[in-house]
Amino acid sequence: MSTSTAVLPKAAAPTKPPKKLSGSGHSQGRVGALMLLPAGILMLVFLLIPIGLTFLLAFTNARLISPVPAKFIGVDNFIRLFESSTFWKSLTNTIVFAVVIVPVQSGLALILAVLVNAKVRGTNIFRTIYFLPVVTSMVVVSMLWMFMYQQEGLINSVLARLGIIGPDWLGDPNTALFALIIMSAWQAMGFHMVIWLSGLQTISGDLYEAASLDGASPWQQFWNVTWPGLKQTRTFILITITISAFSLFTQVNIMTQGGPLDSTSTVVFQAVRTGFQQQQTGYASAISLVFFVLVLAVSLVQRYLTRDKDLGK
Amino acid sequence: MTIALPRTRRSASEQQDRLKSVLIMILRIVLCFVFGLPLVFLIVASFKPDTQIFADLGSWAAFLPVGELSLDNYIGVFERVPFAQFMMNSVLISVATVALGIVVNSMAAFALSRVQFRGQKLILGIVLATLIVPFETLALPLLWWCNQLPYFGIDGFSQGWLDTYEVQIIPFIANAFSIYLFYQYFDSIPKELDDAATVDGAGWFRIYRSIVMPLAGPAVATVAILTFLPAWNSYLWPLMVVQSEELRPAMVGIDYFKQLSVSWGQLMAYASMITVPILVLFIAFQRAFINSIASSGVKG
Q1: Strand, coil or helix: what is B152?
Q2: In chain B, domain spans
Q3: Which fold has domain B75-296?
Q4: N or C end of chain B: which has fewer CB within 10 A?
């Protein structure tokens, strides 16, 4: 039936040649390309040019609002940057945050995914509840957890009932970054659970059947069937968590302002502090550039590592 | 197959399996508390005066609507800040970003996926390459740049886009990830449809509007959800570009409650009002939400 309807217009076409001529190859291709224009212009102005500007401004003394035009000052911004202990502290914090949260969040999210992957009644409800923090904005989550982390707050009250005296989570430089890690993982875990889940569901059930016929334990099944089957998903999750970990800002700005004693200051927080509050666009661009290189390096390394394994198999 | 006959002794392994599934179910339920309770607390506390909130902390009452309950916190929010204005701004900015984004990005993806022209592969390559650039790396240079751009207002020409609705919307319309999602979807729609339509005299724009887009419902939903959430939740950018209260979105407006002497109840009321609508939307369109997130992970 579908073939006959598809053939009909083609057969009818030769009877109306004038219409066909009006839309001939070249001009139509141009019209088609024009449809790319709005997105093209917007991406050029708001994405590609700013990327270029990051590189240019980093070598100038540009200020956000200034009557005098920016001047080229060579690598002065970078010298200042690398001499700043706050910058090094921020860079270290950012890396520590990423190094801890990447395995914790992706690992726990995988456990959640496995828990809700079973065909048990109510799975849908569990999945929905685990996902709720993801649709809650980080601003609200930060406010909420700021309250929960207070010395006399919700978390310490719960701990007190268990006989544990909780620390002043956000007030103590030893626990503040750790506190941010916990709440950030709490917020985003549902997101990665869903991505793991979609990965899990692409693995054919036949493979598990074959494995269990061969007498593989659930653990062996996981390592020999599930884990290799999740390779693509794994790469995607690692890269997205790493990049969003490097971009840490909202939680810091709302909950700690980088304190106490710079213990939660991050690269993006410093970029905003210098580039927005102190209006030193040039210096902030230098920070952004370092950040950009960091993200690029990590994605390239992660891509390279996963590609390498692919070839090895 | 595994239904145990009544009154027969279960084997040890069967008993172990049962114990395991009970333990796993308990784990699932405990996790529900972990992820759900803080939000329950948020909403419950928004109806309590501060003294009650703190008094309830040590017990389950923290999560239950008990004790002194009132709408005082909500009334307080409306007295303290122009909440309706903030909310309207948030809705306007996110809806405009999403709607314009769907049109602009789907057209671009259409051109890349179905029309033949030179440089197509290169452009697609550039679009995909920009996917790994997080917005935060560009935020500061972009802030400076937006302050240099010429602005065409009602009262003519001026310099700088800061403190406008436009600066909160226009930079976020074109989106590499949306283009990519549309591109993937359009590629799966048979190209024979285009040929048939061309024979009938339809131009590319007609094909886009009357053939491809009507078939692209799922892609539109995915893009709408994946661009709405960041637009609604956007914080860093409006924090920097907006000074006037009447242009401020709800996420930034919450800062008022932190700076002035904190009333936790009011803060929770404000937070509830900007969160609950999204939670309701999520629960109503749960399947679409989850599918969008899941499909965002398909890029390898």
Answers
A1: strand
A2: 15-69, 75-296
A3: MetI-like fold (1.10.3720)
A4: N
- Find, in chain B, the residue whose alpha carbon is nearest to that of A190: B35
Across the interface, of B115, B132, B257, the residue whose CB is closest to A32 is B115
Chain segment B231-260, per-residue pLDDT in tens: 999 999 999 999 888 999 999 988 888 766
Q: Please answer yes or no on whether B251 and A22 come within 8 Å at the CB atom.
A: no
Measured over the CA atoms of residue B242, residue B243, residue B247 and residue B253, the dihedral's sign is: positive
Select the CATH number that applies to the domain covering A79-312 from these four: 2.60.40.1580, 1.10.3720.10, 3.40.430.10, 2.40.10.10.
1.10.3720.10
Phi, psi of B151 (to 5 degrees): -120, 125
Who's near B98: CB < 8 A, 6+ residues apart?
A: B223, B224, B227, B228, B231
- Chain A residues close to B205, C-beta within 8 Å: 31, 35
The yes-or-no verdict on residue A2 having pLDDT over 50 is no
ipTM for the predicted complex comes to 0.87
Q: Contact A23/B200, CB-based, under 8 Å?
A: no
Q: Where are the domains of chain A?
A: 79-312
Confidence of residue A215 (pLDDT cuts 50, 70, 90): confident
How many C-beta neighbours within 10 Å does residue B292 have? 23
Q: B41 in contact with A at a CB cutoff of 8 Å? A: yes
Average of per-residue pLDDT values in chain B: 87
